[in-house]
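So, who can interpret the following?
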Amino acid sequence: MLLIAAVSLVVAVEVPRLARPFGADARKERDRKRRKAKLRVISPDEESEEFIRSVQADLESLPTIEERDRKT
């Protein structure tokens, strides 16, 4: 009985420490780092044509509200 209590106590104490590298928050952090690694900064001075195309593509992909949709 005392052994079961000791094991339960150790498990209860160690779960938060083990949850950091293996839990849901760790998965979110790994996903965020993976997404950030794919990003790159385009300098408007050095690559102005590529920068302009990138901004135009971003603007075209934004959702828009049609005039008739705003009135309803």
